[in-house]
Amino acid sequence: MSAKYAIGVDYGTQSGRAVLVDLSNGHEIADHVTPYPHGVIDEQLPVSGIKLGHDWALQHPDDYLEVLRRSVPAVLAASGVAAEDVIGLGIDFTACTMLLVDASGTPLCFKDEWRDNPHGWVKLWKHHAAQDEADRLNAIAAERGEKFLPRYGGKISSEWMIAKVWQILNEAPEVYEATDLFTEATDWVISQLTGAFVRNSCTAGYKSIWHKQEGYPSRDFFKALDPRLEDLTSTKLRGDIKPLGTKAGELTAEMATLTGLVAGTAIAVGNVDAHAAVPAVGVVDEGKLVMAMGTSICHMLLGKEEVEVEGMCGVVEDGIIEGYMGYEAGQSAVGDIFEWFVEEAVPAYVKEAAEKEGVGVHQWLTERAAQYKPGETGLVALDWWNGNRSVLVDTNLTGVVVGYTLLTKPEEMYRTLLEATAFGTRTIIDAFHNNGVPVHEVYACGGLPQKNALLMQIYADVTNREIKVADSKQTPAVGAAMFGAVAAGAAKGGYDSVVDAAKAMARVREETFKPIPENVAVYERLYAEYRTLHDYFGRGANDVMKRLKALKEEASK
Ligand SMILES: Nc1ncnc2c1ncn2[C@@H]1O[C@H](COP(=O)(O)OP(=O)(O)O)[C@@H](O)[C@H]1O
Ligand SMILES: O=C(CO)[C@@H](O)[C@@H](O)COP(=O)(O)O
After folding, report:
1. Positions of CATH 3.30.420.40 in the chain
2. Distance from CA of residue 194 to its chain's centroid?
3. Which of 73, 188, 307, 412 gives a 20 to 30 Å CA spacing to 317?
């Protein structure tokens, strides 16, 4: 048999990337990035210019097709691999990134009738405007003693499907009515590739409160939320739910023409970005925490038992790797905070100096921040620029920096933000480790470990753990390609399970980031300060962040 390949497509927050992978060893033969033409839509709708409210974040479904139109042919051409030898394709996506379709599978925002209604568009994972609905959902679920709540760390996030659906029903009942299916974007893209709609068990489990044995929460629960939602799961959330590692279908002739692949190529069921990354770093058993580090961080961990951990995003059976409980926690902003600083808070002299030296602003700041010792900035920050996903699960929390003086430099502020995100990760690791889901090893993948070595050293020092880094430019995409290879199966030159695929294809770098004892000792003290601030602002002692947010909303009416 000639060498066989698979393609993985990773749909991130700002761009989509395809990677063509050699199935014998996991080598990335070619990759290509397509920035989303419409990016993150968080201020106004395209064309009409209609203004969006606070905490809105939308996307354009055609951007996802653009990735297939551009990046898939590009990796085929760059690799020189014959389309016949690409035996499978898998995708991974941000989630819950939610798309509404009519009975023909057409996104509502593609239609003239709904184009000017913000609710007709894709709600991106970081759309946080359904917080009121999430709060009500949590209160009602707690009151009713719903069994599912502890599996989601005690709170369902406003980032997820049910809160987003309910927001649409409340604010645009006509859009709710016109929707035939609420889908995860990952499932919609798969339906475009195969011509048939199936849901995947990963997003259903983590983002739509679906359980392998129990299914969705009861009709009574949905009725208690809102009588109009009573039938939601059998109507607008209907659809077969297939486990990760299965085949969704085969590439249609139309999509074969569009992508350059062969009609009939095996297509895996959709997956989530962070979840796909886990086997791609070779993690297929317990005790190994994987951090998918980019715009946000997702922390992924496998366990044998179902344990309750405060503020985790969820525990789902087979949710990452078959046979294990898959745990997820996360930070809603990490790279996004650094980007905010670079875009919104850096003085002109820094931008000019970076340009003069021919380096990016991130690099300029990092080089200077690296010259400081831990503690030397005199600053400490809370990393809540986009709310707190774990362990507090509160999107209404905001950022704090303590310790500014007239002498504070931009690079000190940048370093402080890097450290704040490391403290957020430490809080999550400790929550798992101290509550029955032990963490023995830590792995990192995603864009950030490749971009910023100082950040990774800070994470090793703050967590006092060695960090292994994926030897891959596009780890989630490699994971998605592995699932594509499993959809094709061993008989076609792929694999029969993702564990087999990981054994052959996963790669981590030899060099690791190791904690430096003197840094660890100082960070222990700084982390204690972080925890004091964390609990003071995050656990109700002082709700100033929420009062400010309410004032802001009032003032901007
Ligand atoms: N040198 C750098 N140091 C730290 N963060 C960086 C650097 N360069 C870019 N970033 C951040 O990386 C993030 C993008 O991460 P990436 O993994 O590429 O994308 P995604 O989250 O969309 O998958 C952006 O938020 C950006 O601010
Ligand atoms: O929430 C999840 C996965 O559950 C992510 O899709 C979300 O944090 C976005 O990830 P990125 O930072 O864009 O990689």
Report:
1. 5-275+474-505, 284-469+516-557
2. 24
3. 188
pLDDT at 556 (0 to 100): 85
DSSP 197: -
Ligand with the closest atom to the CA of 417: 1
For residues 355-371, give the mean pLDDT.
98
Q: From its phi and psi, is residue 162 left (phi > 0), alpha (psi between -120 and 50) or beta?
A: alpha
Ligand 1 atom nearest residue 334's Cα: 25
Q: Which ligand is nearest to the CA of 474?
A: 1
Pocket mutation for ligand 1, best pick of 295, 341, 469 (most atoms within 8 Å of C-beta): 295
Cis ω on the peptide bond leading into residue 391 (within 30° of 0)? yes
**pLDDT higher than threshold 90 for residue 473:** no
Dihedral of the CA atoms 361, 365, 370, 374 (nearest 10)?
A: -140
State if residue 303 touches ligand 1 by the CB under 6 angstroms criterion.
no
Averaged pLDDT of the chain: 97
Cα separation, 127 vs 92, whole angstroms: 19
Sign of the C-alpha dihedral, residues 66, 15, 34, 78?
A: negative
The model carries a pTM of 0.95
Residue 298 in contact with ligand 2 by CB distance below 6 A: yes
Question: Using one digit for the tens of pLDDT, what is the confidence trace for 164-191?
Answer: 999 999 999 999 999 999 999 999 999 9
From ligand 2's centre to the CA of 330, what distance in Å? 8
C-alpha of residue 198 to centroid of ligand 1, in Å: 32
How high is the ipTM of this complex? 0.97
Mean pLDDT, residues 59-78 taken together: 98
Q: Region 223-241: what's the mean pLDDT?
A: 98
Whole-number Å distance between alpha carbons of 68 and 34: 9
pLDDT for 463 = 98
> Which of 11, 13, 332 is the pocket-test mutation for ligand 2 (most atoms within 8 Å of CB)?
13
pLDDT of residue 1: 75
Residue range 5-275+474-505, CATH number: 3.30.420.40
Of the CATH numbers 3.50.50.60, 3.30.420.40, 3.20.20.190, 3.40.50.300, which one belongs to the domain with range 284-469+516-557?
Answer: 3.30.420.40
249 in contact with ligand 2, CB cutoff 6 A: no
171, exposed or middle or buried, with CB in 10 Å at 0-12, 13-18, 19+? middle
Nearest to 6 by CA among 83, 80, 79, 88: 88
